[in-house]
Amino acid sequence: MEALRMALSYVQITHDTSLYQQIHRRLQDIPSTLPDAVSSVPPLDNMWIELTIKKAQLKLEKLDTDLKNYKSNSIKESIRRGNDDLGDHYLDMGDLCNALKCYSRARDYCTSPKHVVNMCLNVIKVSVYLENWSHVISYVQKAESTTGRTEKEVDPVVQTKLKCAAGLADLATGKYKSAAKNFLQASFDNFKYPELLSSSNVATYGALCALASFDRQELQKNVISSSSFKLFLESDSQLRDILHMFYQSKYDSCLKLLDEIKNTLLLDMYLAPHVKALYVQIRNRALCQYFSPYLSAEMHKMADAFNTNVKDLEDELMQLILDGQINARIDSHNKILYAKDIDQRSSTFEKSIAMGQEYERRTKALILRSAMLKYQVQVK
What we know:
The chain contains 18 helices and 3 strands.
């Protein structure tokens, strides 16, 4: 309720009248049983809607006329800025598709790497709003290739924006390990991206994706010991505790803290669709790490450590065994989990033989290629 009221107030500083009306309808649809639900809904400001539509149309006509004049004069820089201004106005009106078209058109009039990067950032921003994640990745790569041409032109603020945008795209498409790596490369000192996310978002997304996908060594090296990511975590002591408890194998306390923040995470527009999957992966990784040092483990003790009962734990372990995440067998009668006895010597011998055969194949291929080049043999 409070979030909708704040959104309604914020939208009135833009030209997005359709979003204003949509939010107002949402407020009116709130059940009257909620305390102060009806009395706290402000009346629809029809005067503001009419005035804003007129202002937006006048500004649109002016910007469109200016752009036509720039094109008639064939001044690239002016045409580029004209497209950007028109894109900014469409974005302010909530017309994302036309905003994307205008920003994309500026591409043909970029005269420097800085202009190309600015165009990419504009397209990335609107593509995130449209949830066009393949477009986001494509333009992140284009911007990175542009900034990477000369080291002097690399802007740390731009680099951080690109890593965060790539992280959001990877998160949205379920590539949690790649998302974690991108968020972990963001620089706290150079973080300025209010259009898409906050520094606390970077901390949350980076930490949860890392917990779900990193092994113990990666977690310690890239997250817990990371001097740059620590700065993001400073604002969230609970998240920091979760990371440390997981690394210290205090899984009961770690999972309890995760449950405490779950409802808050479900309100996050980027993270909400992935909370369930991330929590499952984090729990599965914890189960695997708990058992990894042992040849056998009592399931009663294991159930206590994970705050569950033996029956549910057995079902979880059975699924992990079937998925190949735990190499073990279950003694269902005595409730003991046994690690499968692997003959390390035979396994190493088999790997060595396979590696030798691969080297032999590659060597023969290289010899054949050299002979063909030497005698100028061509296959037509």
